[in-house]
Structure formats: C-alpha cells, structure tokens
C-alpha cells in the first residue's frame, strides 16, 4: 500500500490560491474554505461525556480545508 499525503504548500501556492479565490468567488485574501461534519461513533469505553455532542449522540468532528476548485488542502 502506498502512502498518500498532501504536499506542503509553498508561498507561491498560497498566493495563487488567494488570487484564484478572488477571481472565482470574489473573496480577497482568502486561501481556503473550512467545513466540518460530525461523524457518529459508538461510545468509547470509559469516555464519559468526551465524545457527546449537542446533536445528542457520540461523534467526532471531521474537518477539512479546500481550495478554490474544491481540492483538499489539509
């Protein structure tokens, strides 16, 4: 199985991303769009209320940052 990873962004990548966000979506100085989702899990043993969320279930939060063309950045 191969390792799959996201390359570390360079300053040029950040500048290009900010330029594309402004051109495509009209958001100046934006380098990424953040979103998250609660993923339901079974309650881990001895976890107390650590994984209990306001949605009245046990969950972990999956977060992602995408660029102006919906590609994952980190």
Features:
74 residues, alpha+beta, three-stranded antiparallel β-sheet, 1 helix, DDE Tnp4 domain-containing protein
Description:
It comes from Acanthoscelides obtectus (Bean weevil). This is DDE Tnp4 domain-containing protein. The chain has a domain at 31-74. The protein has one helix and three strands. It has one helix at residues 11-25; strands at residues 33-40, 52-53, 57-66. The chain has a three-stranded antiparallel sheet, with no helix packed on it. A hairpin with a 3-residue loop joins strand 2 (52-53) and strand 3 (57-66). 4% of the residues are buried.
Secondary-structure blueprint:
Elements: H1 11-25, E1 33-40, E2 52-53, E3 57-66
Antiparallel strand pairs: 1-3, 2-3
Give the overall pLDDT as a whole number: 89
In the predicted model, the low-confidence regions spanning at least 5 consecutive residues are: none
What order do the strands of the largest sheet run in, or round the barrel if closed? 1-3-2
Number of alpha- plus pi-helical segments:
1
Number of strand segments: 3
* Secondary-structure-derived class: alpha+beta
Approximately how much beta-strand content do the residues carry?
A: 25-35%
**How widely separated are the two ends?**
21 Å
What sort of overall outline do the alpha carbons produce when their principal axes are compared? elongated
Largest sheet: 3 strands, antiparallel
Alpha-carbon Rg, integer: 17 Å
Please bin the fraction of helical residues: 10-25%
How do the SSEs run, as a string of H and E? HEEE
Protein name: DDE Tnp4 domain-containing protein
